[in-house]
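Page 47, continued from p. 46.
Same chain as before, 225 aa.
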Amino acid sequence: MRNLIKKTLHFFLKLGLKLFYLKPRKYSYDDITVIVHPDVFPPQLTISTKILLDFLSLIKLNNKTVLELGCGSGIISLFASKKGATVIATDINQTALEYLKKNSHRNSLKVELIHSDLFNNIENRIFDYIIINPPYYPKIPKNVKEQAWFCGEDFEYFKKLFKQLTNHINTSFNIYMILSEDCKIDYIKVIATKSNLVFDTVLEKKVFGEKNYIFQIKSKTLEPS
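Result:
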């Protein structure tokens, strides 16, 4: 019965997304307003962005360096900037970066933009915080827009992410990633262990009957014995 309800909700969500995103739409948080292009991950009709924003609102980011890996609408980056952080926002979607540039000017907030597939174009950078809202549905994305939703048939996104994170784990002890119970969390954790990474649950929140988790990603070798 639960699976049937989820399938029904997903059908209407997909239909709603199609109708809602016929044109750019606004999204606001803490007096920050962004215009979101239809080809960019939609914070309006999803809940993960709001959960991350509420979580970050409790963290002191002044004079910290924050990387939003896969920024989408960029409102998380803008919020971190408003809280006093030096912010780097990356995305594989050039349209997302173009709109974030405009939105940063509109909100008078500074964000450094880097066009990059995960860490490919990020070298020799040190971050206090890395924030990740990943794609997690196991399907091959057909285009850049779908890369915000689909991680590959065999979770290739996570395999690459965790392998690259091992090069940054020593310089950033605050790596946060949000996942929904709607994805294969246990399998994603197995992939992480192959890169010697572990998940610590720092937040669990249920919205519309679905549990969402924010995990802190750590190196197993750096864990206290």
